[in-house]
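Hi Y.,

Following your request, here is the sequence exactly as I used it, all 77 residues.
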Amino acid sequence: MPISPALVEELNILTRYNLASSQEGIKVHHTAAPELVAAVKRLHSKGLVDQEDGGYLTSLGIEAAEHIQKAMIILND
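Below is the corresponding structure, written out as tokens. Let me know if you'd prefer a different format.
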């Protein structure tokens, strides 16, 4: 299964979260690139983040971000 550009944007957002702190979220401003704004909205609709503009990871989002960040460590070696 190929990775679509839209999915790459979502993965990139999830790699930006600091998993060492559950009190640290991100905010994507409406002036950001349209692809980024759309990706965050998709993550929200999938239940991975708690706000349409980013916010905090949900429990499902934390699990997904952990897997993605671990995969990035493995693949970047």
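The first strand starts at residue 26 and ends at 27.

Thanks again,
Q.
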